[in-house]
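Trying the structure run again after the queue cleared.
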Amino acid sequence: MSRLLEINHCRKSFDGSEVLTDLSLCVESSQVLSIIGPSGSGKSTLLRCATLLETMDGGDLIYDGTYAARDMGGRAVYAPPAQLQKVRGMFGLVFQNFNLFPHYTVLKNIMEAPMLVQKRSRKEVEAEARALLDQMGLADKADAYPFQLSGGQQQRVSIARALAMNPKILFFDEPTSALDPELTGEILRVIRALAERKMTMVIVTHEMAFARDVSDWVVFMNGGVIIEQGPPAEVIDHPGQERTIQFLRRMREQ
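Done. Tokens:
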């Protein structure tokens, strides 16, 4: 398996307060990596640094051998714009609050980026977008607007939109946190189906049973550092660190 994502010694502070401290991880092709941990542990900040929505203060960020940022003397120096554009084409990001364009139809939401950013033909993109909607069980919603959809349907559209860019790796930032339990199940089924098709994914989640079932690797974060990582059978079922044990106990009690 090839290494698709590598983060080395990532550091990030906000207003002098360090949120990520010397954090390193890697993601192999076809791997599903879940990031778990309490609120405020730095999970979403790590995802935002990995997807170039935030800049790291220090560390390396490498996609499929291409440097997005390189640590030079303890400071992260980012690649030129053309190289960063290439890197952005390698990943997709699904937000917890859907982030669909409210004034676009479902179909246009999915087609817009491949046509504008990748300069692909309308005919090709539309055929692919309709196939993705069919895959998501939303073939009949192409002409609907986001406000006409349930939360679960909106999230499935946002997943289809990310997949339309043909990313090598897909990031999910707590994709079910805005949904009720019934709709949560429908999104987790979609992600599970993607895992079965060997889509490389990084998932920030509070769904422990799901993380155990779908992940190849689990990372437990607390206070901006990785406390424990390994296969889900180890980290979730038989954690070795007291902080992980406390967190999982609290999650079970909720």
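Residues 100-166 form one domain. Worth checking whether this holds up in the mutant runs.
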